[in-house]
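Appendix C. Worked example: HAT C-terminal dimerisation domain-containing protein
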Amino acid sequence: MAHLNTATVLKSMPSFCKFFASICASSKRNSVFEKVQKELNVSNSTLKSLSDTRWSCRIESIRSVLTNFNSIISTLENINETDSIHGSDAILQLTNSLSIHFQKKNANYSSVGILTNATLLELESLRNDDSYKLFWTKTEQFATKEDIRLPDIPRKRKIPSRFGGGEATTINNISSYFKVSIYFPVLDIIINDIKTKFEENNITILNALQCCLSNKNCSDENILEVCNTYDIIIDDFKAELKLFSKMCLSSDIPENFENRLNFFLSKDLIGSFENMYKIFKIYLSIPMSSASSERSFSSLRRLKTFTRNTIGQERLSNIAILNIENMYPMNFDKIIDQFSAESTQRGRRLQLI
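Step 2, the predicted output written as structure tokens:
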């Protein structure tokens, strides 16, 4: 009963929960909160969330709000002045396709590389004054339509005397402030993060596979790398690669991975080009993300929670496979027949008349 009462009180205070989540759930906003505390000479105390199970946490949460009330108000005002929701939306629209593609099970190194390069080129094309002027014009139009007042330039901050004193670089208008402080830095961070993420997988064998299967800049070093890694006779692989490339050329197949793969499958060349088939399978089986594994862990967690007290390791593994692979259609009659045939005990199948 006490737990239910506590949960009811928590639901009746949505505003408290919202501003706590708004500040503490973001490392950037929490950093602003700590900075404001230092400026106001307030002790560095953290906000405490409302617990939905313990009454003893109530007073601690309220005290943290009362102690940091001025800091909270200043932080929310600072966030309101500097956060740019629509700027983030304009940029994240470009990266959304790449994010979705990374979560696909059938994503391969070739398609990810092409989409990554296209996304980087588009983001880099936005990093200039002309693109920013267009972005700022749309922002002003939206603000006018929604009757929103554009923020003022933040107050000038003085450089501490131990660093030489004086004032930081002077910015005369709000448009220049957002360009220098938000627009360009956000673009730089996203571009660098995408490059760093993709360069982690930019290893020699992946590039060698890509060059051999797409026939773009395929060198003897690439062929040697593939053959040594996967134990393939180099002369046989070279012969298959040359013959397959001639077939693609005569059929006007573009030199990219997807078209050559479709051509290989449409002509049913699996038996004729065994080494090529092996390399295609290896290349397509290399995972580009951990999305599938994360979904499997989520399924495992649900199962473990649901049957925590009765489940064993073997049963857990079997149920996890059924849950994770539930998207595949199953022939239940075939499963029953196999179960009956492999059974060491007679009478497993019920005779229903």
